[in-house]
Amino acid sequence: MKIFNAIAVMVFIVAVGFITHSLIKDSEKKYYATTTAEMSTIEEKLYLSGFVYPSKEIEVKSQISGVVDAVYVSVGDAVKEGDPVASVSLVPNSSEVEQLKSNVNVARINLTTAKATYERQEQLLEKKAISRVEFESTQKEYLTAQENYSTAVKQLSLRQKGKDRSNNIVRSSTYGVIIDIPVKVGSSVVERSNYNSGSTVATIAGTDLYIFKTYVPEINIGSLNIGMPVKISLLAFEHFEIPAVITKISAKGEIQGGSVKFPIEAAFALNEDSMKLRSGFSATGEILLSCVSDVLTLPEKCINFKSDTTYVYVTDSLKNKVIEKNVTLGVSDGEKVQIVEGITTEDNIITNYHD
Length: 355
Description:
Blueprint: H1 2-27, E1 34-35, E2 38-54, E3 57-61, E4 66-71, E5 78-79, E6 84-90, H2 94-126, H3 132-161, H4 165-168, E7 169-171, E8 176-180, E9 188-189, E10 200-205, E11 210-217, H5 218-221, E12 229-234, E13 241-249, E14 254-256, E15 259-268, E16 281-299, E17 304-306, E18 309-316, E19 321-326, E20 328-332, E21 336-341, E22 349-350
Antiparallel strand pairs: 1-22, 2-11, 2-16, 3-10, 4-6, 4-9, 5-8, 6-7, 8-10, 11-15, 12-13, 12-16, 13-15, 14-15, 16-21, 17-18, 18-19, 20-21
Helix pairs in contact: 2-3
């Protein structure tokens, strides 16, 4: 009986040892996850972030220098050509007023002299002492002196009072939407002239055409051409997309973050009943660079790189081992890559060889 118990214990110990050894050996084995190449379509797209601006922004200037005494519009208002934007009151300038007073005095003296000459010549004409031609010349000088005096008086009055609102109204020079009013009631403005750009009373943006402005890395700039379609989406509006076309590709790059990027522009139009866009909206542009259909593809994670060689790990079912196969790649969309040659749909591609 004791011998039987001893044998049973020994068999149990051997069985447990065998099972434990098998489990350890099994845990040391490498199990691979595999996939196969499949026929699919790959679109290589370029995503660019940028901003949307109206195609034209017109600055409305004042024709006279003075102080803003009324603003008739607000930001966001739609205006037409000729609509009043603001009014400006003239502010008397001491030196200018003195000059205008001097002009009035000179004009009064000239008028008095011309009147006396006219009356004298009129008497001589009645006596037929002078010709009609001489009299008409004197009459012209008298009328001109009257006009000069009247103009000098009006200029002085306008500068002193500044109440002729009909001449002081700043009007819109185009149609569009008011996007900025940099002045307030009481602000001083300077007139526009050949020597001065003048003060901006309001900025008007055209609403018929908008421009998407962004920067393209130099690695992608060679793939773009004027007229290429761009799909624009706005951060401010969900599920809003509108087609645009590239209208400008700069020939000069700019260094941003240590890399060279080139400014580009894409134009698009909006219908009158579409939402109102504000200047400076954040937007994303999607450009389709290339597209291939019905091609052999693999997930990007299956591809391995060594120097200038690309390859995948394949399980050899006959020899029960892993082998490397060189592959030639084509278009990639960041998730899938086109396999030009090297494998077929029958190959089992390892996805976790380095795990």
